[in-house]
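User: I'm putting together notes for a lab meeting next week and I want to include a structural view of one of the chains we've been expressing. I don't have a solved structure, so I'd like a prediction I can at least talk through. The sequence is below, exactly as it appears in our construct file.
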Amino acid sequence: MSASIPLSRDPVPDGDHPLARAFASFTEAAGSLERTYGLLQAQVIQLRQELEITNRDLAKSLAENQRIRERLKRILEGLPCGVLVMEPGGQISTCNPEGERLLGTGLHDMGSLLPHLTAALEQARATGEESEVAISLPAGTGAAWVAVRHAWLEQDHERSTSVFIVRDVSEGKRLEQEREQLRRQQALVEMSALLAHEIRNPLGSLELFAGLLAEANLEGDNQRWVEHVQAGLRALSATVNNVLHLHNTPLPERAEMDIGQLLDWAYEFLLPLAKQAGVELQVVNGLRGIVIRADRHRLEQVVLNLALNAFRFMAGGGWLSIRGEDLEADGVEIIVEDTGPGISPDDLPRIFQAGFSTRPGSCGLGLAVCHKIVEQHKGTIGVESRPGCGTTFRLRLPVASGAE
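Assistant: Thanks for the context. Below is the predicted structure for the 404-residue chain, given as structure tokens.
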């Protein structure tokens, strides 16, 4: 029987065991992964923080941009001039309220503008200078003058956006036209005053000679012809005096006068004119002995103008009454009443305006001169009239008119 000899093996170190090595590798890989994950997580946190900062900055920038856009919009809407932005091809992208008021609403492209306005825009773009054009405002609100100026918003070979500034210059044009009209009127005034002065001297001589002929006791037709000459000369003299009184009006030379003598003079002076016009003249003098301070020659001009105005509108005959009444503490009143065609209610507010007349060929100065002279005497002049019912002028003067 043989004895068995046990076999012996050397033990394997723990670190060299394959399982141990695999576990160590796994542990090392897990640690590396954990460290990488930690780093990645830190980077994600940092990126998130940076993203949050970027988002806040972006939101702030967007809010600022919106605020700026709103501000620019309000500025654009509040501008006193029109702003028109025209894209390439003629499309209108922006038009503020003032631009819509001047150019019209619903503008889409250049074709929707008025032709003469389109020409003005093209001229401003081509020359770079401001151009002016007359336009009709929308909805029948009148006419206006606008000035157009151009500026490039973008200009290159592919894009060319234009900005047009449109200003309402109607007020300036109106003032310019008024200045030109005033210059012409001033020239006319100077010429008419010069002519009136030149006519006045020979006219005075003619009136003197006509007066001498009237006193020569002529008979029949000769006397009537002289009266007609006197009437014509007096009417011409009144026109000359109207020009001088309206355009050359120094302060009246007031002196004490019997206002009743004015009405006595009126009857004698106006009688030939009344005969020539076929008008019956009546003077009722209730003012004799009443003394006021006034410029007699200018008051004579007032009465003469009112009478001549009545005669001219009663070419077919009629009746003219001049009455003087004492109002005691309220002064004196002279009433000139005729049976003419009357005055339209629409014309009544304008009859004292210089140049206004409803009679063809009239210069429209007589009543304006009356109003001015009466105002210089601190008095009033009023009118009552209805078409077909004649006209009544009431002239009131204070007893102490012109007293210092």
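A couple of points you could mention at the meeting. The two ends are 179 Å apart (CA to CA). The longest strand covers residues 143-155.

User: Perfect, that's what I needed.
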